Amino acid sequence: MDRMLDVMAIFSLLLAALVLLSVRRAHIRVEYSVSWLAAAVALLVLSRWRNLVSRIPAWLGVSDAALAMLIASGAVFMIVLFRLSMIISHLKDSNIALIQKVAILEFNMDSLHEKDQAAGQD
Amino acid sequence: MKLLVLIPAYNEEGAIGGVVEEVRGVMPGTPVLVVDDCSKDATIHRARQAGARVLALPYHLGLGGCVQAGYRLAYERGFDYVIRVDGDGQHDPRDIPKILEALQKERCEMVIGSRFVDGAGEHTSAFRGLAILFFRAVLRPILGKPVRDPTSGFVGVNRTALDVFSRTFPLEYPEIEALVVLQRRRFRFVEIPCRMRPRKAGRSTITAVKSLYYMVHVLLGVFVNVLKFEGRRK
User: Where are the domains of chain B?
Assistant: First the structure.
């Protein structure tokens, strides 16, 4: 159990370092790194707070502490992934609106160009 | 009265020219707009050759996004009515005047060209037939009236519906969800008999593999639209 919690702590620190490095290199925007940093901190707190870890199995109604930690970690990442789905949905809506707008603007420009050409011929 | 005939198209080089020519033959003087959903073939060229104006999307959006782009342009340009005809030649343009007449006489927001109303042809695939039966049953209590051909893309809308659809329109498989979007705003629709023909070229976007996804996706879309708070406003 102790080894599992140590591995979890190392993993959470690595995750936090990776996220910060990615933000620094502009691979992730700051606003999208928040969820991952929060997940890393949550995992770190879980792995270091022994009293909490010992209580979680009882709260979840499972006898195995490792299984309880797995469920808790899974829940944290589910929340992060759900937030990402929301962000992707919003981006898709924005992209669609932009693509439609670009096409309509090009159409309007072509129409004006044709009108100019017709007026030039007259 | 300003009418626009809207033809969404994706890789329809084999049929689009004929469809545009037929529409122009039936409705001389009426502008025909082909919305090209970033086709990989010569759809744009063929449509222009046949005399249509083309709204060319720079990226592929799918049927709903493609149709909505056309609705947006039509709304911005002040059109009173838009009649949508599929680019594969399945809809008979000779029915366009009937749809326009129904839009004007019935004073409803949407007219559906239905293959199942008396007197119309019933050309449809086995899967589509099953999907139609299923969604008829689902939509009956939601719409408060029966709809015989909820998957028909041969539809006419007036400016009020155009206003709504230019802002809110389902992105994939839009026909069924669009009915719910209208119903949530207490808009009315009628169905009139129309002929359906076999597609002139190309393949249907709904293949056997996508069938289950189609049913689940549309069903979910219907219930999401029913639950939308915004949709309950008039």
Answer: 3-232
| Contact residues, chain B, for A107 at CB < 8 Å | 53, 55-56, 73
H and E: helices and strands count for chain A? 4, 0
Contact residues, chain A, for B47 at CB < 8 Å: none
Q: What does pTM read for this prediction?
A: 0.83
pLDDT in tens, B113-148: 998 876 555 666 677 778 888 889 999 999 888 898
Q: d(Cα B5, Cα A44) in Å, to the nearest integer?
A: 61
Residue range A44-90, pLDDT digits in tens: 988 888 788 788 888 888 877 778 878 888 888 899 899 899 999 99
Distance from CA of B124 to the nearest CA of A (A): 31
Nearest CB to B73; choose among A99, A102, A107:
A107
CB-based contact B2:B78 (threshold 8 Å) = yes
Residue B46 near residue B73, CB atoms below 8 Å: no
CATH of span B3-232: 3.90.550.10
**Domains of chain A, residue spans:** 2-87
pLDDT of residue B233: 45
On chain A, the residues whose CB falls within 8 A of the CB of B172 are: none
